[in-house]
Amino acid sequence: MAAVGRGAVRRLAARAAVIRIEAIWLSVEPLDMRAGFDTALARVVTVFGAAHPHTAYVFANRRSDRLKVLVHDGIGLWLAARRLHQGSFARGRLGLNEPLTPEQLDALVLGLPWYRVGEASVIRVT
User: Fold this and answer.
1) Which residues pair with 68 in a beta bridge?
2) Burial of 2 by CB count in 10 Å (0-12 exposed, 13-18 middle, 19+ buried)?
3) I need a labelling partner for 53 at 20 to 30 A (CA). Which of 20, 38, 40, 90 fits?
4) For 42, which DSSP code?
């Protein structure tokens, strides 16, 4: 388990020769931040049904001041952690596991309201 800073998960994803992320899922189920690979993988299987290759699964703790990201790179697993010293990570819609875009993941990791990034922030006049 490695603690990572801003954009570290994104930088990991940018290393195409090492790791490729095609899908990102945010779980609404909190995860104990003491969880290691086995516990995080068991939670992914429980919540999402399986750990799919080239997919990142993002979990927050109950206070939403810490994140853990489990990535299945097609060969093995990566586990990254992020902690905010102030504030909390923005939660999505309650009760729904959310697919995220890479831009939304960047915003989430920074503690910004990720659900306002991309199509969700478009204002339309009817």
Assistant:
1) 59, 81
2) exposed
3) 90
4) H
Cα 126 from Cα 1, distance rounded (Å): 49
The conformational region for residue 21 under phi > 0 = left, psi -120 to 50 = alpha, else beta, is: beta
Distance CA 41, CA 52 (A): 11
**pLDDT mean by block of 10 residues, the chain; 126 residues:** 57 61 90 92 92 94 92 92 88 75 88 81 64
Cβ(66)–Cβ(82) below 8 Å:
yes
In 1-126, DSSP assigns E strands to 2-3, 23-26, 55-60, 66-72, 77-83, 98-100
> How many residues in total does the chain contain?
126
Q: Phi, psi at residue 106, to the nearest 5°?
A: -55, -45
DSSP three-state, residue 50: coil
Under 8 Å between Cβ of 113 and 91 = no
User: Exposed (0-12), middle (13-18) or buried (19+): which is 65, by Cβ within 10 Å?
Assistant: middle
